[in-house]
Amino acid sequence: MNPYTFTKKPATVEAWQWNFSTDQLEPPTWMTDALNKWPEVGGAAFWPNGKLGVNQSTPERVWWNRPHIEIQTLEGVMRAVPGDWIIRGVAHEIYPCKPAIFATTYEKAAS
């Protein structure tokens, strides 16, 4: 057995796909709660029209010129764009996930 090989434990998480459309499902309470907190204290911020930001790798200013949600995570601020999944993990942390990764990693849980 390779001592560097691990299998991810099965865990059920909650997730919501953000589509930025009027006909999508209401966000779950945990997402609404995060949007009502400042990102600096573990919340999230919604930018419907984008915003001016600073690229962390260069001193240049860049535009996030499309709607996005900024989520404070242990790894720093992560951005979700329409189509991304927002996941609430086993420790109730929230983080975005790209659709292709979500489809590879998760399947619908039995009700």
Q: What about the largest sheet? A: 3 strands, antiparallel
Strand order within the widest beta sheet: 1-7-8
| Poorly predicted spans | none
Distance between the termini: 36 Å
Write structural notes for this entry.
This protein has 111 residues and is α+β, with helices and mostly antiparallel strands. It has one domain. The chain contains two helices and eight strands; from the N terminus they run βαβββββββα. The strands form three sheets. A three-stranded antiparallel sheet has the order 1-7-8. Strands 2-5-6 form a three-stranded antiparallel sheet. It has a two-stranded antiparallel sheet with strand order 3-4. Strand 5 and strand 6 form a beta hairpin. It is globular. The termini are far apart. The relative contact order is 0.20. The mean pLDDT is 79.
Quick rundown:
This protein is of the alpha+beta class and 111 residues long.
Keyword list:
111 residues; alpha+beta; three-stranded antiparallel β-sheet; 32% strand; globular
Describe how the helices and strands are arranged.
Elements: E1 14-17, H1 29-35, E2 44-47, E3 51-54, E4 61-64, E5 68-73, E6 76-80, E7 85-88, E8 94-97, H2 99-105
Antiparallel strand pairs: 1-7, 2-5, 3-4, 5-6, 7-8
